[in-house]
Amino acid sequence: MKKVLTYAVALLVGGISYGQMNTSDVYQAGSGNDSDVTQVGYMNDSDVDQLGNDNESDVLQMGATNGSTVLQDGNDNYQDTQQLGDGNTSTVTQSGNDNNAYAHQGFLGLSSGNDGNMSDITQTGNGNYAHVDQYTSGDDSDNNTSNVLQMGNTNFAFVDQQGDFNGSGVGQNGNDNVAYVLQIGAGNGSLVIQNGERNFSDVDQNGTSNTSGVAQTGDDNDSYVDQDGTLNNSSVLQSGNRNYSEVDQTGFGNFSDVKQFGNDNVSDVDQVGDYNISGVIQTGNDNESEVYQNGLFNSSTVSQTGDDNYSKVYQDGIGNTSTVSQLGASHSSCVTQVGAGNSSMVTQSN
């Protein structure tokens, strides 16, 4: 058991800290643990606690007023933190075995201008992996926020934020869940919540002030969200097993809301243009919905309750409106609107 408290200039478990008023605290209980802390600027603070065996932690802080906190409780856990700008904060908490966490807020000296970023990673269980990058090579990425919480086994989260004031939250509870988040631009927001087994989410946001929310409960659900533009909004809720949702938004102020309850449902929404609105709700099994909107101010609502229903909506123009409601089993609907101000309502039941 060893505790080393370092102020200013000190040698610490293979690492070195120098500058003005840097603070490092390392506590290790067990065997085979390793910690390497390097702090070069001033008023950086690092706290590393490792309980168990064969845990490893590397912390590098080269700017000023950066803060890093690491707690690893278990065996064979690994974490790596690099903060090269000023005012960055990283917190890593891992409980269990064979977990890996990486929080890079500036990497290998390429992004020393990245300031004010915050990363929080918490993993409980075994074999979980979390990787957070908040930097832009050759440019500044400031004031980004990432929170990753994983509970269970062999969950995977990768968050990449390039730009300013982006926010990402990933929460996964269960086993073998996967979440990817890529944000490029400013003011984008993403939230991914997955509960169950083998769920998959991929969110790509490129632009300004786009918002995405994904919630999946059950097993083997897949969600893909791609937003390119400004002020696009996407919401996906899937509850059940083997549901699939894909949302693609390009333009300004598009809105998509997808809700699927049951098993083996499929939803595909494509929006190109400005201020298009799509709402899809499917309850039951083996339902499929396709919505394509190109233009301005188009609106589509699809509601399917039952099994084996199919709906396709195609809108190309300005101010078109479509409503599809199917109740029962094995209904099929196809709506095509080209032009301006068209209106369609389909209702089928058995």
Cα radius of gyration in angstroms: 24 Å
Helices, by number, come to: 0
Give the proportion of residues in helices. Answer: under 10%
Query: What share of the residues does DSSP label as strand, in percent?
Result: over 45%
Strand order of the largest sheet: 1-4-6-8-10-12-14-16-18-20-22-24-26-28-30-32
Shape: elongated
How many beta strands in the DSSP annotation?
Answer: 32
Mean pLDDT: 92
For the biggest sheet, the summary is: 16 strands, mixed
Uncertain runs are: 1-18
Distance between termini?
72 Å
* Class from helix and strand fractions: mainly beta
Give a structural overview.
- With 350 residues, this protein is mainly beta.
- It has a domain at 224-350.
- It is 0% helix and 73% strand.
- It has a 16-stranded mixed β-sheet, with no helix packed on it. Strands 5-7-9-11-13-15-17-19-21-23-25-27-29-31 form a 14-stranded parallel β-sheet, with no helix packed on it.
- The model is unreliable at 1-18 (pLDDT under 50).
Structure summary:
This protein is mainly β. It has a domain at 224-350. The chain is built from no helices and 32 strands.
